[in-house]
Amino acid sequence: MSASKPNVVFVLGGPGAGKGTQCANIVKTFGFVHLSAGDLLREERSKPGSEFGELIEKHIRDGTIVPVEITCSLLENAMTKNEKNNFLIDGFPRNQDNLDGWTRQMGDKVNVHFVLFLEAPEDICVNRCLSRGQAGSGRSDDNPESLKKRVVTYNNDTMPIISHFDKLSLVRKVDAAKGTEEVFDQVKEHFKGFVES
Ligand code: UDP
Ligand code: MG
């Protein structure tokens, strides 16, 4: 993390909305650092001897949300380790606990620029995750049972967080039901303020 306050863009949307894919594009074009909360949790889960491994795996399979202290510390560590100034935080904050914990721990340390909201119908999102599972994503939650629960969590817990940011005029929405390139054309419009690399 550089001396000045780092810039943060949150990337939200349902499971399978394309957050990871679009973040990779933003990294390539605009030089952001991509921090996926889900990937950081999966990495922590897989560390030999991690005291949180079992807890994280249970939440991931059940589609519920890991306590914010764990996720937020993983995010903060990843930011502190990095020299760069522009961060995409993908898949976080997902519920009120996440938002409160983030505000407590990180509120004064970063500038949240906006929330990129990838909006796509539920059936499209679910089918993308199921295809990803069948194609060998190796994720323990890309199966029909976990997906049902992930969708419930998204609708009940994450949508209200997106509404919260929308009331603050921080949400920039794109139609994520389209193909990857068309979606990225829309995404780019929102990053115009950041110099293309
Ligand atoms: N997760 C969590 N807190 C986070 C991000 C992810 O608890 O801040 C857990 C949650 O159980 C979620 C799972 O990790 O269902 C997978 O999240 P990821 O963002 O990888 O899934 P995606 O939405 O990208 O399919
Ligand atoms: Mg993801």
TrEMBL record:
Cofactor annotation comment: Binds 1 Mg(2+) ion per monomer.
Name of the protein in its database record: UMP-CMP kinase
Record note on quaternary structure: Monomer.
Organism: Orchesella cincta (Springtail)
Record EC number: 2.7.4.14
Compartments it resides in: Cytoplasm; Nucleus
Keyword Lipid metabolism applies: no
Record CDD domains: ADK
Entry similarity comment: Belongs to the adenylate kinase family. UMP-CMP kinase subfamily.
Renumbered residue ranges of the record's region NMPbind: 36-66
Domain note: Consists of three domains, a large central CORE domain and two small peripheral domains, NMPbind and LID, which undergo movements during catalysis. The LID domain closes over the site of phosphoryl transfer upon ATP binding. Assembling and dissambling the active center during each catalytic cycle provides an effective means to prevent ATP hydrolysis.
Residues annotated to bind ATP: G16, A17, G18, K19, G20, T21, R132, K178
